[in-house]
Design brief:
By secondary structure, this protein is mostly helical. It has 2 helices and 3 strands; from the N terminus they run H-H-E-E-E. The mean pLDDT is about 80.
């Protein structure tokens, strides 16, 4: 009878701790990978947003005959944006706008300072620069 009771006693404390430790390791690996994807997604979404702004600025110039100056900024073309609002990058900061461009023969330049909000950086903290179309993270 005691052998029968022993089979149904349940899990020992060590077995439960091992299972919890394994679950913790699995959750850590998943969290690290998901955060990497989210970081890359924000970077990619900001690149798309910059392309949309460039398209709107080209339409603005076609209609007015010129691009907004640096002093006028993107606000000069605000009515061309959805809801009349100039969008920020995916980290919530305004794009830097310069016209005419200072890096080659560009009519204008857009810059997002990446996840960290400061110039330079690597990976998700890298700046997005409109004059470097083929840039990768």
């Amino acid at each position: 009878m005691s052998a029968r009771i022993r089979k149904h006693r349940g899990q020992s404390l060590i077995e439960i701790m091992v299972v919890i430790a394994i679950m913790g390791i699995i959750m850590t690996v998943i969290a690290v990978n998901v955060m990497g994807f989210l970081s890359r997604a924000k970077w990619d979404a900001t690149k798309v947003q910059m392309n949309n702004i460039e398209t709107i600025l080209v339409a603005y110039a076609a209609r007015t005959g010129h691009f907004p100056t640096t002093n006028e900024g993107l606000a000069a073309a605000a009515k061309w944006f959805p809801d009349g609002v100039v969008p920020n990058d995916t980290w919530g900061r305004p794009f830097r706008y310069t016209a005419p461009g200072t890096h080659g023969a560009h009519d204008f330049e857009l810059v997002s300072l990446g996840a960290d909000g400061v110039e330079g950086g690597d990976d998700a903290n890298a700046d997005l620069l409109s004059w470097k179309k083929g840039q990768e993270e």
